[in-house]
Amino acid sequence: MASLPLVVIRPEPGNRETVDRARAMGIDAHGYPLFEVVPLPWDAQSPDGFTGLLAGSANVFRHGGAMLERLRALPVHAVGAATADAARAAGFEVAQTGSGGLQPVVERLAAGRYLRLAGEERVPLLPPAGVLLETRVVYAVRALCLPPALQAILREGAIVALHSGEAAGHFAKETTESNLNRRAIAIACLAPRIGEMAGKGWLKTGIAPERTDHALLALALQMCQTV
């Protein structure tokens, strides 16, 4: 039986990066971004009184614009390696790099006042005692419709990589509205919450053992060969 292709729907530039990694692993990967990241106007105010920055996405530094300059003296607590790399590329010092979501990063923060730079859609956080969070929304992610070329691939059967809960929910909605058969589509999810938001009825739902692109692609490779 021929292996199924992998479809990556995350926004750019992450889409191209994931597709390139997948192809280097021998996966028949196709990039179809179903989201567009756009900057939003925001006010950085003064960094005085803040202990550090909290960042849950590399998009904070890719789309934060000129206001980031005012905050460069604050150390960054990043959700993961990609966000930490984007922070350093923007000239920030990284104090902490997480690996399992933003909540564990928050739980390790020292007492203080932190500025959370985030997208319009974001995960609620529960800070520990002594940690105060203030949020500034610096970007938004706009969902796009399934293009006809992607619909054709999905009708023939494919694995779809899902990097976020928002992507899972939007993809599920689009497949329903496009009258696609979920039994022809398997999903590879970065975390359990993502699989839950995608809903049921898929050919197979796989959950990566770690919240990294490498772990997700290793799962996708296995699924492409066995589903």
Protein model, in words:
The protein is of the alpha/beta class and 227 residues long. Helix content is 33%, strand content 25%. The chain has 8 helices and 11 strands. The strands form 2 sheets. Strands 3-8-7-4-5-6 form a 6-stranded mixed beta sheet. A 5-stranded parallel beta sheet has the order 2-1-9-10-11, with helices on both faces. Strand 4, helix 2 and strand 5 form a beta-alpha-beta unit. Helix 6 packs parallel to helix 7. The chain is elongated and about 55 Å long. The mean pLDDT is 95.
Radius of gyration (CA) equals: 18 Å
Number of helical runs? 8
Order of neighbouring strands in the sheet with most strands = 3-8-7-4-5-6
Low-confidence stretches: none
Query: Distance N terminus to C terminus?
Result: 10 Å
Task: Give the ordered list of helices and strands.
Answer: EHEEEHEHEHEEHEHEHEH
Shape assignment? elongated
Q: In what range is the share of β-strand residues?
A: 25-35%
Number of strands: 11
Q: Could you tell me the mean pLDDT? A: 95
State the helical fraction.
25-40%
Protein structure class = alpha/beta
Sheet with most strands: 6 strands, mixed
Q: How are the elements arranged and paired?
A:
Layout: E1 6-8, H1 14-24, E2 29-31, E3 35-39, E4 52-55, H2 59-63, E5 76-78, H3 81-89, E6 94-97, H4 102-107, E7 112-119, E8 131-143, H5 148-156, E9 158-162, H6 165-177, E10 185-189, H7 192-198, E11 204-207, H8 213-226
Parallel strand pairs: 1-2, 1-9, 4-5, 4-7, 5-6, 7-8, 9-10, 10-11
Antiparallel strand pairs: 3-8
Helix pairs in contact: 6-7
